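Hello,

Our lab assistant flagged a job as stuck in the queue for most of the afternoon. It eventually completed. Since we weren't sure the result was trustworthy after the delay, we are filing this so someone can double-check. Below is the sequence as submitted and the structure that was eventually returned. Let us know if re-running is recommended.
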Amino acid sequence: MWRRLNREDLLKSNPLLGGSESQGQLRWRVYEEYEVVPLEDADDDFVQVAGRGTDREAPLVSVYEPITDTPHLFLEFARLIESKSPEIALSSFVHKYGLLGLSPERTYHGDPSLAQVSPSIHNDDKGGRHDSLEHIWALAYEANESLLLYEAAISGNREKLEHALFSSYGGAEWVRERRGRLRGRAEATGASWVEVLVNAALFQLLEYAHGPLVT
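-- returned structure --
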């Protein structure tokens, strides 16, 4: 039977919860107000703390440990896409939990692409050029798709699995080719159609997990 994951599911799956002392390694700051800043050399805009670097910079309002204090954080971020008003939902999310930390706090000497997509203790919770709206929404869509894939996989529901795997965003030809490849896999291995769909869903989920979602 298919069902949506809820906060209780995530509370049960977090091994860091329930201890007498905090075990988180990342403290994240939330500020009173944020602003959208247009980029002069790009079409996209980015988000940062309002008045950053000026004497009117928005004050700090709270500090928390995302892993231990908000085990449901990923779930809330992934559900933004399903909101009736995603833009309003994103604004509320940022004001409650802060930014994603996509902008490096200091010069990053490794792979530049990793500095853009991998939040860490060295990334800036005040925002910056890499906290672009385009980038944030791209991660939100990926998070939502990952959630749907996982829910479909654990349910074993054929219709939900097909919906999650054969989304039309790739185009009708892409869907036909992917469906054909999976049909061929089922015939070659003797696995049922649902078993092949579950395997494909989990494999795609792992691909996402090796990217930004792993953090």
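-- support follow-up --
The delay was a queue issue, not a problem with the job. The result is valid. Residues 107-119 have pLDDT under 50 and may be disordered. Residues 28 and 64 are 5 Å apart (CA to CA).
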